[in-house]
Design brief:
The chain is mostly beta strands. It contains no helices and eleven strands. 0% of the residues lie in helices and 52% in strands. The strands form two sheets. Strands 2, 4, 5, 6, 9, 10 and 11 form a seven-stranded mixed sheet that branches. Strands 1-3-8-7 form a four-stranded antiparallel sheet, with no helix packed on it. It is globular, with a radius of gyration of 13 Å.
Length: 124
């Protein structure tokens, strides 16, 4: 059973930066795709970024291209999301997620494991 714990959320002014981290526990020897998702109040959950087990980018939302960078460290079982040039529209609860296997994309329904989330608030 994989457990995920996010950290690094907070409040920042527009144009600022935040770095989210996700620590994964309970991995067996199995490839895992990992991703970041977000959900703002009254909106559907949105895929932000996904990374293959080997570290290659599997998907990145158009709304964050050029501003967000995702990376993972399999030795430490961590996933990170560097968020720069933040906008008020980035305000949401951000979730780390993982799915077993080699396939990887931003389809939230394919992910079996989810963290509790960390809040990101961007003020104008």
């Amino acid at each position: 059973q994989v457990q995920l714990v996010e950290s690094g959320g907070g409040s920042v002014q527009a144009g600022g930066s935040l770095r989210l981290s996700c620590a994964a526990f309970g991995y067996a020897y199995s490839p895992y795709c990992m991703g970041w998702f977000r959900q703002a109040p009254g909106k559907e959950r949105e895929g932000v970024a996904a990374v293959y087990h080997g570290g290659g980018l599997a998907g990145l939302a158009a709304s964050v291209k050029g501003r967000f960078t995702v990376s993972r460290d399999n030795a430490k079982n961590t996933l990170s999301l560097q968020m720069n040039s933040l906008k008020p529209d980035d305000t949401a609860m951000y979730y780390c997620a993982a799915r077993a296997g080699w396939s990887c994309d931003l389809e939230a329904n394919e992910y079996q494991y989810w963290g509790p989330g960390t809040q990101v608030t961007v003020s104008s």
